[in-house]
Amino acid sequence: GAVVSQHPSWVICKSGTSVKIECRSLDFQATTMFWYRQFPKQSLMLMATSNEGSKATYEQGVEKDKFLINHASLTLSTLTVTSAHPEDSSFYICSASGQTRVGPQHFGDGTRLSIL
Amino acid sequence: RKEVEQDPGPFNVPEGATVAFNCTYSNSASQSFFWYRQDCRKEPKLLMSVYSSGNEDGRFTAQLNRASQYISLLIRDSKLSDSATYLCVVSSNRDDKIIFGKGTRLHILP
Fold this sequence. Notes:
The complex is a heterodimer of chains A (116) and B (110).
Chain A (H helix, E strand, L loop, with lengths): L3 E4 L2 E4 L5 E7 L6 E7 L6 E7 L5 E2 L8 E7 L2 E6 L8 E8 L7 E3 L3 E5 L1
Chain B lengths: L3 E3 L4 E4 L4 E7 L6 E7 L6 E6 L4 E3 L2 E6 L4 E6 L8 E9 L4 E4 L3 E6 L1
Parallel strand pairs in B: 2-11
Antiparallel strand pairs in B: 1-3, 3-8, 4-5, 4-9, 6-7, 7-8, 9-10, 9-11
């Protein structure tokens, strides 16, 4: 089945640091990937839709200059949290579909980000 | 009306019992429906797709009611390992939108 790899799985860093998270589709090409954030005991929140070769589409309330998304190839999308602060601490998860853009989603393992 | 709505629970159910959740959606153009399971501090995993004719996978049965715009998930003979949050997902090919429900928490009690 379709596999999505996300790296790193855990990051702890100081306030003000920028953190890059990678999401790779290992055995299929993903023209679209999705980035989510999930705070403890809360539901998934879609942050942005990452489109290969074009700009990401951000959800309302998500700062595009804060959360930089790059989707340079059909198998890799990256999310960079710039100048991270403690309130950015969260669980970040990417997903992609190996079929249609809106088919069953396959999720990466997630990245737990802790900003001190 | 929210785009996808689920009862957040928690549902506390004794082991061996049958439990059912519903999920309502507002967009009548929705075409694809899924149930995901998410364990605490883990990523969601696809449990099953939901087809118009309904489908069954072992102890799990999913149904779609287009007229009333809801999908359901039935778990029979529940196991302790079924404890998780169950997410309803609705998508539309027309506008490429994927909408996650907020999830229903299920606790299976020994």
